[in-house]
Amino acid sequence: MVMKQHFLLSAKARTLSLAKVMRLSDEEAHETFKQIRWAENGGEPVCPRCGSVTVYEYRARRIFKCKDCQSQFSVTTGTIFASRKLAIRDLLAAIAIFVNGAKGISALQLSRDLDCQYKTAFVLLHKLREALGAEMKTRTLNGHVEIDGAYFGGYVKPENVKSERKDLRLKEHQTGKRRAVVIMRERKGRSLPFVFPNEGDAVPTIRERVEIGTTVYADEASVWDGLHARYPTKRVNHSINFVDEDACTNQAESYFSRLRRAEIGTHHHISGPYLNAYANEMAWREDNRRKPNGTLYALAASAALTHAVSRNWKGYWQRAIIAGT
Ligand SMILES: [Zn+2]
Question: What is the dihedral angle through the alpha carbons of 175, 176, 178, 181, rounded to the nearest 10 degrees?
Answer without folding.
Answer: 130
